[in-house]
Here is the input.
Amino acid sequence: MLTTNARRARQVAAWAGVACIALLITACNSSSSANPIDVPATPAVTVTPAVTATPAVTATPAVTATPAVTATPTGTSTFLAQSQDLNRALLYRPACRSGCQLSGDGTATLDKMTWRTWSATEAVGTGTYELDACNPDCAAGPIYPVATVVTLSHPVKVCSPSGTRWVWTRASFTFPHGLPKALRGGNGPNNPWVFDSLVAAARQSCAR
Here is the structure.
């Protein structure tokens, strides 16, 4: 009888121990749920956007204007090339008492000139323009003296061992009393007259 009771007492004690352990586990779980351990939050990393470098602005170099061969410095003397020939003496404000040939073949000549203006860029004078009508040909054609006002302009630079010179390359004419019939229409003189051969020779002289 005592043995049976002792066994029951041991069983009761064992079950009581199991119950106690269960209660402890439940209490521990509840405590963990109610008071969780705070885990420090990892601070967010702020990404600074990369700074894009502004490309350097390249300055455009100033364009240097190429001086025109017809631009004459102020104060420089400009000359008339006889017969448009740079190998002949250059004339400055000539009176042309013996005639100043404008053409290489002698068919156009200035005579008895008076210059009211002769600057570095323009010359204006009055006098007589002797023109060959070239009829039937220039060798046998009559010469007509015509009253004229001539304007010389468009100087170009000439380079030579003796120095730099400037010469007129264009002549414009007005005829106060008109032209004789033989020199009208298609037989009239060039007006304005550009000395193309002289321009070419002047440029060639400075290109050497």
